[in-house]
Design goal:
The complex is a heterotetramer of chains A (about 375), B (about 190), C (about 400) and D (about 190).
Chain A lengths: L1 H10 L1 H4 L3 H38 L15 H10 L11 H17 L18 H22 L3 H32 L4 H7 L12 H18 L11 H4 L9 H26 L16 H24 L7 H32 L7 H7 L3
Helix pairs in contact in A: 3-11, 3-12, 4-11, 5-6, 5-11, 6-7, 7-9, 7-13, 9-11, 9-13, 11-12, 13-14
Chain B lengths: L14 H13 L4 E5 L6 E4 L4 H10 L7 E10 L7 E9 L19 E9 L4 E3 L8 H11 L3 E3 L27 E2 L2 E2 L7
Parallel strand pairs in B: 2-5, 6-7
Antiparallel strand pairs in B: 1-2, 3-4, 4-5, 8-9
Chain C lengths: L16 H11 L7 E6 L11 E7 L2 E8 L7 H7 L2 H11 L4 H16 L5 H29 L4 H21 L8 E2 L2 E2 L5 H24 L4 H7 L7 H7 L4 H4 L7 H4 L26 H25 L18 E9 L2 E9 L8 E5 L1 H7 L1 H4 L5 H11 L3 H5 L1
Antiparallel strand pairs in C: 1-2, 2-3, 4-5, 6-7, 7-8
Classes of the chains: A mainly alpha (about 375), B alpha/beta (about 190), C mainly alpha (about 400), D mainly alpha (about 190).
């Protein structure tokens, strides 16, 4: 971001007259808003996408009356929720009840700051990118248990309990699967990780060795669980817990939960695309770093995100829900060992690449060791 | 199975009910008040105080093995006896004994069920429970109490099952009258239409 | 025990407290955490209507539960006493609104038996055909809704595709999509046309073609199997003791089907199998999976019956002679028939000299089936409780009548 | 203008009422409400099956944005009372309705909830009309109504929301202090 602003200041004469701090601050605010609006609109459209895709899968149509092909459906939903009565149950713990959606919202949206939407198109290009993404999304748990607790509803607390158990557990394989890519890449900076995958599609990290391939699936499944998407949607299992932790929330507070859920979906799809599927790299050797072509790159990343979202929707509308003990079984007895093996295997792979295959000296060694 | 469709000149006795009757008469000779072995709906009527003994027998005896209480119905006969009678009909069936062909003139050709009847005075209308003999009788008894007002004695608790607890009266009694309203919500009686 | 969870009761009446307390003593030996009492329903997506289940849970485990019914008690028996016989038939439809034809069938049989009315041959065949169509529709719904209970939304909507076509079939002959009033005392409302029969053939082959699709989504689905294996076991003893009938009892290994073992109407003329639970189909005897499997198999058997009935069906009238001002002689009748959910029994008492029944009593199979969850759901997870209620496939209209 | 003033705007200055911006805002608000009627997943009896059929494959209520069946009353706008309402259920229905946030709408689906239907005469336990318990916006006759009829009812409700600036009968009742149809006329 800073580099982008620096470029801007250099090329624009009237900006040079202003104090640098002011330009930076204004740039940051604008960038934040852009990211927020982009993420929110995308989340809204994901709801539409989900309804249309699920409709197609279920031999029906889905929303198609509001706007062209029902594209404005999310706007109608949002406007309606905005205008609803805001009920705080009498027995609820009011301050916590009111704060909880904000925390969930922050957890889901703040992580977008470090996610590059394209070449240079990133709000904060941090060297701890992936680490920050994982830690910020964990904040959501706090908001959810606050919501469940403060609602003073039995369904809500049960949903929150399930949610916390599930999310905290699945952070482990999620983090480890991401770690195996960090081992390969040698950096936690998300943009840097994408640069390393540029070129032909076999440079994508998912194809660099068996461990990365397995780690991709471990990451995606764990992400599904952390996102409480079906078949892991136990915290809001409608047939069991009415609506889970947000049973008592009305109007816009509920909309915030709803939006945060879809924003997190987009976030994880994007992060998966960046970590494993080459980010904005189209899969063949082409330079997309130009000021105009970087938007093409952004579109490519967008396409990959949508593809992953589609897979999430597909899975959701196909599988029945797991039971809580099976969810925990899957986490601790399947995914966790698998991702540990991935990390260790990846370290060995990088080590072998450095020693046996001659490191950066030959192409195969470079391919095998990535940036590590 | 084909001969069962033929109707003989004299209506034959129903074999299942006949066997049940033999079992009952051997064990509790005074218990059986009346019975009917022919026709579409054979039945045995026992005294209310012997009902539980009869039920235990019918359930456990090797000849009958009526292991399922299919239905308990209460029938109100306000004109019978002195001051009216309540009749409780137990339809018992067996999944243990396989049906045999040639079951006479029953409603259904070979359907192993037995109808056991009890008649008690309308007031207080007390019948011993059979809930401990067939667990499933629990809800049927509660329903019979709820709608017909048969008081089953000796069971855990007898409360309404379908209607709210403060509902007035038992609707399937012939002299029950429609209340004007329930908790402020009006009920229009049939004459009001 | 000084500390006890709140009461499960609604209005302060002494219900179930003793029993639950005793059970708690039994399970209370292991470590217990603070218990909560939930009210599942009457508005809850998993209770299939307006059933209310008071559940006492310890974390995710069900410690005790008490079903409360009666929320749509619609006085069908009182109406049966108050209206002439022929006017009662539509109310039978509304008792089990997912198997209206089967209800009509049994009810009409009872009334016909009471009045000694003969039903023409063709009408009997038509009754069997529509009753089996209804059974398939009901089982499709049961399968779909079970998927919904377990979180799989798609099978539910997919089955509606076939269900809609089947409902259209019945719509063509009766004029109603859900409640038909097609079977009348003495026969059926109107004859089947050749076009209708062709449509029926198309539909049956469509259902046959689609069934593997549903089985892929549910029956053979690993996640589904994990949810239903060894869950909510109703063994033979429990089932018979509580009066469970239908697929619930057959899953427990009881080889009993009224259609075959106590044939009513003309079911003894058809060759069909009665699927019953076995240990080699997966899961254990009497668990949720086996109940689901029985329903899937029964759809296939119903298709068989429909085809046979369609081939054997003779020509002739479809309405027998019913005297005007039908007044059956004094007497009683007890008829039971196999509904999709279990055995529907109809006990009717006629006092004679009247066109109204003295007592019209119906045994809704769901009434007995749901009573047994008190016993089988204890100690299961909440998610399993949903699976159990779903697998029993209750219709509240029939529980409450 | 004061004659057909909307109840929600009576406190405003008449001149302000005619301002373009305010009308547009109101229009947008209604547009949202109209197109996102989330029904509560709440079925009582037979009609609930037809309600499900309406939401399912062939009829697909989701086309109108009304297919998001919420299990929690807190998140639903529309209560489709589908089926027979009994005296035992009535207090619970009332409570569910009270839990729904404003603006909320009620469709009485089926003959039973309109006036007791086939059970009105001898059904001692059937409430003879859900409007004795909660205010009803759209009455939908039939036993059970066909899915097309339910779609029509929802379309009618949508048009009504747009015409009457989103005020549900409940809100109007609260504001005018009059009950049922009288309140509708008063608005």
């Amino acid at each position: 971001m800073q580099s982008l602003l620096d470029q801007l200041i250099e090329s624009t004469s009237w900006l040079q007259g202003l104090p640098v701090g002011l330009v930076y601050a204004a740039g940051m605010v604008i960038a934040c808003n852009l990211v927020l609006v982009y993420a929110s609109a995308l989340a809204g459209e994901t709801v539409w996408l989900e309804r249309r895709v699920s409709g197609r899968m279920q031999a029906r149509i889905g929303p198609n009356r509001v706007g062209p092909q029902g594209l404005l459906q999310f706007l109608a939903d949002g406007l309606k929720l905005l205008g609803k009565e805001d009920i705080v149950p009498k027995t609820a713990d009011k301050p916590i009840f009111l704060i909880a959606p904000i925390i969930v919202f922050v957890g889901a949206f703040a992580a977008f700051a470090v996610v590059p939407f394209g070449h240079y198109l990133v709000a904060a290009d941090m060297n701890v990118g992936i680490f920050l993404v994982l830690s910020l999304t964990s904040i959501e748990v706090v908001g959810i248990i606050m919501a469940g607790w403060a609602s003073n509803s039995k369904w809500a607390i049960l949903g929150a309990m399930r949610e916390v158990a599930q999310m905290v557990s699945y952070e482990l394989p999620l983090g480890l699967a991401a770690l195996s890519i960090v081992v390969l890449a040698g950096t936690m900076n998300l943009s840097e990780i994408v640069y390393q995958q540029e070129g032909w599609f076999w440079n994508w990290y998912v194809f660099r060795g068996p461990f990365a391939f397995v780690a991709f699936f471990a990451f995606f499944v764990s992400a599904l669980a952390a996102l409480k998407r079906a078949p892991f949607d136990l915290p809001e299992a409608e047939s069991e817990l009415v609506a889970g932790f947000h049973t008592e929330y009305t109007g816009f507070r509920f909309a915030v939960f709803f939006l945060a859920e879809y924003a997190a979906m987009i976030l994880f799809s994007m992060v998966t695309a960046i970590l494993f599927l080459g980010g904005w790299s189209p899969g063949f050797d082409i330079d997309l770093s130009g000021p105009l072509s970087r938007w093409i790159g952004a579109l490519i990343l967008f396409g990959k995100t949508i593809a992953l979202l589609f897979v999430m929707i597909w899975v959701r509308w196909t599988l029945p829900r797991f039971r809580i003990d099976r969810v925990m079984y899957l986490c601790y007895k399947v995914l966790l060992p698998v991702s540990v093996v991935c990390v260790v295997g990846m370290a060995i792979q990088v080590l072998l690449a450095m020693t046996v295959f001659g490191g950066r000296a030959n192409a195969f060694g470079t391919w095998l060791m990535g940036g590590g | 199975m084909s001969e069962s469709t033929d109707t003989p000149a004299a209506p034959p006795a129903d074999p299942v009910t006949e066997r049940a009757l033999a079992v009952l008469q051997a064990a509790i000779p005074d218990g059986v008040v009346a019975y009917e072995l022919t026709g579409g709906h054979p039945w045995i009527q026992v005294r209310a105080e012997d009902l539980r003994a009869a039920c235990w027998l019918l359930r456990d005896h090797a000849d009958t093995k009526l292991d399922c209480c299919h239905l308990i119905s209460g029938v109100d006969w306000p004109d019978a006896g002195e001051g009216g009678e309540l009749e409780v009909v137990y339809h018992l069936c067996s999944f243990e004994l396989k049906p045999e062909p040639g079951y006479g003139q029953r409603a259904l050709k070979n359907d192993p069920w037995v109808a056991l009847k009890v008649r008690v005075p309308r007031d207080p209308g007390e019948v011993p429970t059979v809930m401990d003999i067939w667990t499933g009788a629990d809800w049927h008894e509660r329903e019979t109490w709820d709608l017909v007002g048969v008081r089953f004695t000796g069971r855990r608790e007898l409360r309404r099952i379908l209607l709210p607890d403060d509902w007035p009266g038992h609707p399937l009694r012939k002299d029950w009258e429609y209340p004007a309203s329930y908790h402020g919500v009006p009920i229009i009686p049939p004459e009001g239409y | 025990m000084a500390e006890r969870g709140p009461d499960l009761r609604s209005g302060g009446e002494p219900e179930g407290a003793v029993e639950i307390h005793e059970r708690q003593e039994a399970v209370g030996r292991d470590l217990r955490t603070e218990e909560m009492v939930f009210n599942m329903g009457p508005q809850h997506p998993a209770t299939h209507g307006v059933l209310r289940v008071a559940v006492r849970t310890d974390g995710e485990h069900v410690r005790a539960l008490q079903p409360h019914v009666g929320n749509i008690h619609r006085c069908a028996e009182k109406i049966g006493e108050s209206l002439p016989y022929y006017q009662w038939i539509p109310y039978l439809d509304r008792m089990d609104y997912l198997a209206a034809i089967c209800n009509e069938h049994v009810g009409c049989m009872a009334i016909e038996r009471l009045g000694g009315i003969e039903v023409p041959e063709r009408a009997e065949y038509i009754r069997v055909i529509v009753a089996e169509v209804q059974r398939i529709l009901s089982h499709l719904m049961a399968i779909g809704v079970y998927g919904l209970d377990l979180g799989a939304f798609t099978p539910f909507l997919h089955q509606f595709r076939e269900r809609e076509r089947g409902m259209d079939l019945l719509d063509h002959i009766s004029g109603g999509r859900l409640l038909y009033h097609y079977i009348r005392i003495g026969g059926v409302k109107r004859d089947l046309s050749q076009d209708w029969l062709d449509e029926l053939d198309a539909w049956t082959s469509e259902v046959e073609r689609r069934m593997p699709e549903y089985n892929t989504l549910l029956l053979h689905n690993r996640v589904f199997q994990e949810r239903t294996f060894r869950v909510g076991i109703i063994d033979r003893d429990t089932g018979v003791r509580w009066g469970v009938t239908g697929p619930g009892l057959r899953a427990a290994g009881v080889d009993w089907d009224c259609r075959r073992d106590a044939p009513y109407s003309i079911y003894d003329r058809f060759d069909f199998e009665v699927p019953y639970g076995a240990s080699d189909i997966g899961g254990v005897l009497g668990d949720c999976f086996q109940r689901h499997w029985i329903r899937v198999r029964e759809i296939e058997e119903s298709l068989k019956i429909i085809r046979q009935a369609r081939e054997q069906m003779p020509e002739g009238p479809v309405m027998g002679r019913v005297p005007k001002g039908f007044k059956p002689p004094a007497g009683e009748v007890y008829i039971r028939g196999e509904n999709p959910r279990g055995e529907l029994a109809c006990y009717m008492v006629s006092a004679g000299k009247s066109d109204k029944a003295w007592r019209a009593r119906c045994r809704g199979p769901s009434f007995s089936n749901i009573a047994c969850i008190t016993e089988i759901a204890e100690g299961q997870l909440i998610a399993d409780l949903v699976a159990i209620i779903g697998s029993l496939d209750i219709v509240l209209g029939e529980v409450d009548r | 203008m004061p004659d057909d003033a909307q109840p929600g705007e009576v406190l405003l200055d008449p001149e302000l009422q005619q301002s373009v911006i305010l009308t547009k805002v109101q229009w947008v608000k209604d547009w949202g409400r109209r197109n996102a009627l989330w029904p509560m997943a709440f079925g009582l009896a037979c009609c609930a099956m037809e309600m499900m059929a309406t939401a399912a494959t062939k009829y697909d209520l989701d086309r109108f944005g009304a297919g998001v069946f919420r299990a929690s009353p807190r998140q639903s706008d529309l209560m489709i009372v589908a089926g027979t309402l009994s005296h035992k259920m009535a207090p619970r229905l009332k409570r569910l309705w009270e839990q729904m946030p404003d603006p909320k709408y009620v469709i009485a689906m089926g003959a039973c909830v309109i006036g007791g239907g086939p059970y009105s005469r001898y059904g001692y336990h059937v409430v003879q009309g859900v409007d004795l318990i909660v205010p009803v916006d759209v009455y939908l006759p039939g036993c059970p109504p066909r899915p097309e009829a339910l779609i029509d009812a929802i379309r009618k409700l949508q048009f009504r929301i747009q015409e009457r600036t989103g005020e549900s009968l409940a809100t109007i009742e609260a504001k005018t202090g009059r009950k049922g149809a009288g309140a509708a006329r008063a608005s």
